[in-house]
Design a protein that fits this description.
mainly beta; Immunoglobulin-like; five-stranded antiparallel beta sheet
């Protein structure tokens, strides 16, 4: 499975504007008046940046030849397989909120089909906050919903407190194929892609019923881009 970052929102760095103020006293025709000029000096305005970075541009975690009962270390099952890990660093200069999108795609035969017998997924951050558990995720407000077997589940909130430059977040993706998986899953294939993005925190209030690990939707006072 391939996990990548995306810049969802960016303000161009280094954009400048200069304002000068000049006052002049006019010289009269008959009388010589003292005159002078003065400048306020340059006033420079620089936009902040909102960017997400992580070492390599992508991390690939391939799990092959799974059989019923196989799992990684933090999922029910054999616990013999390795956990997929992903480290994210917020590199922008403006404080920001972070989110992760979870996209699922399948081959001709689905290994993940959002059922109790198919592939189970467990996504957590370094604080053990769950984002995906088995086949479900939490919507805004806390209601549970099924993670679809095809398509993207967007905007799972990573931080309700604005992240500053250098904020690092680690993620783990565990998985397991239940012993109840039958022959219909043989040769199945699933790809899970995690996409991280950020948006400015200033003048962009997160709704009060959003929580870390839950989906946080666009509202009247909040937007992701």
């Amino acid at each position: 499975m391939t996990m990548s970052t995306r810049k969802r929102f960016a303000l161009g760095a280094g954009a400048t504007a200069t304002v000068g103020a000049v006052a002049t006293l006019a010289a009269g025709v008959t009388f010589g008046l003292f005159s002078a000029t003065t400048s306020s000096g340059a006033n420079t305005f620089t936009a902040g940046t909102v960017t997400v970075g992580n070492g390599p541009t992508s991390v690939t975690c391939n799990v092959q030849n799974m059989v019923p009962g196989d799992s990684s270390a933090n999922a029910p099952g054999s616990k013999a397989d390795g956990t997929c890990t992903y480290n994210v660093v917020y590199t922008g200069s403006a404080n920001a909120y972070l989110a992760v999108d979870v996209a699922v795609s399948n081959g001709t035969t689905k290994l993940y089909d959002a059922s109790a017998t198919g592939l189970q997924l467990y996504l957590k951050d370094g604080s053990s906050t769950p984002y995906v558990s088995g086949t479900s995720f939490s919507q805004q407000g806390g209601a549970s919903a099924s993670l679809p077997s095809t398509g993207t589940t967007p905007n799972l909130l990573v931080n309700k407190t604005a992240a500053g430059t250098g904020t690092a977040v680690s993620f783990s993706l565990d998985y397991g194929l239940p012993t109840g998986a039958d022959n219909s899953y043989q040769g199945g294939n699933t790809t899970v892609t995690l996409t991280f993005h950020a948006v400015q925190a200033g003048n962009n209030a997160v709704p009060s019923n959003c929580a870390t690990g839950q989906q946080c939707n666009v509202g009247s006072t909040f937007a992701w881009s």
